[in-house]
Amino acid sequence: MIPDLTDEDLAVRDTVRRFAQKELAPRAAEFDETAAFVGAHLPRLAELGILGLNLPEEFGGANISALGLTAAVEEIAASCPATASMITAHYLATDSILLAGSDSQKKRYLPDAAAGKSLGAFALTEPAAGSNPADMATRSTATANGYHLSGTKHFISNAGHADFIIVFARTPDEGPLPVIDAFILDKATKGITVAAPEPVMGMRGSHVFEIALDCELPATARLGTAGSGFRTAMRVLDRGRVEVAALALGICQAALAATIDWIAQRKVAGKPLADYQGVQWMAADKATEIEAARLLTWRAAALRQSGQAFSREAAMAKLTASETAGRVTDRALQLHGGYGYSRRMPLERLARDARILRIYEGASEIQRNIIARFLLREASR
Fold it and tell me: Which residues contact 308 (CB under 8 A, 6 or more apart)?
């Protein structure tokens, strides 16, 4: 069963929709064209409480359910996917502290993050270690005063603009599986070198960076208990995958809306494209795919809200929604013909923005591995 949005959820969703359509959508093409960071939107995002939608009220968050959060992310992504990507990367960082942080860490970082006074980043991926943490090369070594971190993280959203970064590193402990710790790094920490933003295909207003680490940290910088970093990362990614699914839905909805408007106006042989049954079927198929992906996403969000396990459902939602976004944007571009290929229209941007969704926060292949693991485990019972 998928519960309805609460009155609070609906109020937040509608507020976010109005803001996104009025303030984000008109500048989306500009940020893509210039590759300028969408951080210009941060003051208004903070004013509306959007940067703390994933947090409880005690830390400055909103009274909104996980389903309401999903709906809000979809609305933002429908107007500016790059802004949605920046926000969801921030959520990864604050979720890490919410799930694994001490009381003092939560009080220190979360209220400012929710109020827009600080921006977070989540640094797990490395040049040679994307989907497999066993390949992680970043190391943490205990010192007399805390820890020494050394290594490189790559494709880290927000990192060059972030005030704090959640970093994952292997310890020297040997065993069948790597032992990983998580740390909170303040921007002012000496020994952090951030490269220029990576030149990317899409989401050009949401910057990603490489980070070189050679720094000393106090013992209080560790997030969670010793060796708990991997579990923290997986719990956070479960949440993040539902948000990526919502981001994908927003792109889908924007592409579908543009297509419906186009086929109603564009004429071929004297008739609107919408009068042709083949075109009608294409639109119907894509609308149905989007709704199916939305139901999977809402199912995962509802389980998260109820406190139940939702790793499998998050993987299904992320896989389905991200793959659907690729198909929907491609078909929408096709129905626009040469105009869809032009940068004067939003379709080519949406198609480029959608492409990364099948890669980050666990590639589609990894989501299939996760789903298959659950299936095989259930079959062996």
Answer: none
